[in-house]
Design goal:
Layout lengths: L2 H17 L2 H8 L12 H10 L17 H9 L20 H9 L13 H7 L8 H16 L5 H8 L26 H8 L1 E10 L2 E7 L3 E6 L2 E6 L6 E9 L2 E19 L6 E9 L7 E9 L6 H7 L5 E3 L8 E8 L2 E6 L7 E3 L9 E19 L2
Antiparallel strand pairs: 1-2, 2-5, 3-4, 4-13, 5-13, 6-7, 6-10, 6-13, 7-8, 8-9, 10-11, 11-12
Bound molecules: iron/sulfur cluster (2 copies) and zinc ion.
């Protein structure tokens, strides 16, 4: 090991402890430093991600430093020039990044959790798609928005390592790669993902069940057939909502057949830009704490302080319930909304599976919407109370 390398390593230990945890520093001080480009099993990738200070937190702007070419080049060359956005040694644009400067001074964990998000600084940065390589910023924007809407995700790093690893050989790849740099297997590129999150300047309308649904997310909707039912498929972004517009739903009944792969549900009393809504969703969880759980969750969409994760950790069982449903299988979801009270019914049940006595959203009326990430919808009906 060169003395320069050793010096950099020591500097990183000093710098990283203020922003990352003590065990991260201990890991660097061991024998595994800078081992970020493994050809390894998913299990070993996961444990490495957890302990590796170079990839333990999101960058302030929502990028994942582990998939950044600057950091990967550092790792490859063995002379570390960048220790990640949260350290004091970065490369290229990151040296003068205004977002990083601001987030550090405000001591926010990541911009998506900042009270001022989305401020002009971060908006300008996220919307910079002048170059093909900047497609990654659309992906970063989605990450920031997820933090804003859903709160902190303890499994974020693990998911990012999984996302940016070749499915065939396990090699971690970069935002700019178009195939696996080691085995040339096809990968989901940043540009592909960005295309899913792209916004249309004007909304598109999709006809479904005799109604016209509105969205400004490109590629969000598609009409497909599943199990003999002609269905509307919502794919891509976790925040995809298509709205029935105009609609001024206040109280009444909303029903739909739903088949979910990741998450899906019904929104109501929503703002037309999707910034706020009452939301009921079915979600499959598969984290360490929640292995193979299938939940029905209520949350006021658009407020991460009351995201389903926050509500569930503070008051488990008050806004959520476990169910026994299977992925991609149809079930009927029915919501009965009366003032602040919400009853959720499944299939032919006569008793509600979940009752929320006091909903938390601030809107009395608004649009009805379908919400989902890889979810299908069919046979939509609603009966507003006059
Ligand atoms: S662009 Fe700014 S916020 Fe994003 S990784 Fe670089 S320094 Fe961090
Ligand atoms: S004000 Fe903007 S740039 Fe600064 S931390 Fe908040 S969201 Fe990030
Ligand atoms: Zn590969």
């Amino acid at each position: 090991m060169t003395s320069e390398h050793e010096m950099n390593r020591r500097r990183f230990i000093m710098e990283s402890t203020c922003l990352t945890c003590g065990c991260a520093a201990a890991f660097v001080a061991g024998t595994h430093q800078f081992d970020l480009l493994p050809q390894a099993s998913a299990q070993s990738r996961r444990s490495r991600g957890k302990d590796n200070p170079l990839a333990t937190e999101p960058a302030f702007c929502g990028l994942f430093c582990g998939a950044c070419s600057g950091l990967q080049e550092s790792v490859r060359s063995g002379t570390v020039k960048c220790y990640g956005c949260r350290s004091n040694q970065v490369v290229g644009h990151c040296k003068t990044c205004k977002v990083r400067e601001c987030a550090k001074s405000k001591q926010v964990h990541t911009c998506g959790l900042c009270e001022s998000y989305p401020c002009d600084k971060i908006k300008e940065y996220h919307n910079d798609e002048t170059e093909e390589s900047n497609k990654k910023m659309a992906v970063a924007r989605k990450v920031s928005e997820d933090f804003q809407y859903f709160g902190n995700d303890p499994d974020w790093v693990e998911k990012q390592i999984e996302r940016w690893s070749c499915k065939k050989c396990g090699t971690v790849f970069e935002y700019g790669n178009v195939k696996c740099p080691k085995c040339s297997a096809p990968i989901i590129t940043a540009a592909m993902e960005a295309a899913v999150y792209a916004r249309r300047k004007t909304p598109v309308f999709t006809d479904f069940d005799g109604r016209s649904w509105q969205t400004n997310l490109a590629y969000a909707t598609e009409t497909k057939t599943l199990g003999g039912r002609k269905a509307l498929l919502l794919q891509g972004s976790e925040r995809t909502i298509v709205f029935l517009s105009p609609s001024n739903f206040r109280n009444g009944t909303i029903e739909c057949d739903i088949a979910v792969r990741n998450s899906g549900g019904l929104a109501f009393r929503a703002a037309e830009d999707g910034s706020a809504a009452e939301l009921v969703q079915l979600r499959f969880l598969n984290t360490k704490a929640d292995k193979n759980k299938k939940l029905i969750l209520y949350s006021p969409h658009g407020d991460w302080r009351s995201s389903w994760r926050e509500l569930r950790s503070k008051e488990p069982g008050k806004y959520d319930v476990e169910t026994k449903m299977a992925k991609d299988k149809w079930f009927r979801l029915k919501l009965v909304v009366a003032g602040k009270k919400l009853d959720v019914y499944l299939d032919k049940d006569t008793e509600p599976v979940l009752t929320v006595a006091e909903m938390l959203g601030k809107r009395d009326a608004g649009c009805v919407g379908l919400y989902g990430e890889n979810a299908r919808f069919a046979n939509f009906t609603m009966q507003p109370e006059s």
